[in-house]
Amino acid sequence: MAAGNGKGAPDGIGAVIKRAADGAVLHSEDIVNAVSLYDTLTKKGIAPHLFLITDDQFEEQEKTAPKDLQAVNGTMKIHQVNIYT
């Protein structure tokens, strides 16, 4: 593996979700979109903190977001962000 790839918590969570979805499909469940994936995983108790954001919710948030937001320079060079509270 390349350094830093596949070792963090998000990678582990993604692997659990992918493995659960693969298992559901192997047991004849159809997962055709985000809604069916969400329903399958929450029904099985695999992802109790999974959130489904609908197109309507996304579009509503997009309408209320400020139009003058500036991009943060150098974000492609950030490898890790630590926030201490």
Describe the structure.
There is one protein chain. This protein is an all-alpha fold and 85 residues long. It has one domain. Helices cover 45% and strands 0% of the residues. It is extended.
Helix coverage percent: 40-55%
Distance between the termini: 32 Å
**Rg calc:** 17 Å
Q: Please tally the β strands and state the result.
A: 0
Total tally of structural domains: 1
Mind describing the biggest β-sheet? none
How much of the sequence lies in strands comes to: under 5%
Overall pLDDT confidence: 82
Order of helices and strands: HHH
Poorly predicted runs of 5 or more residues = none
**How many DSSP helices?**
3
Structural class: mainly alpha
User: Outline, from the CA principal axes?
Assistant: extended
Summarize the topology.
Blueprint: H1 9-26, H2 34-43, H3 55-64
In short:
Helices cover about 45% and strands about 0% of the residues. It has helices at about 10-25, 35-45, 55-65.
List keywords for this structure.
single chain; mainly alpha; extended; 85 residues; 3 helices
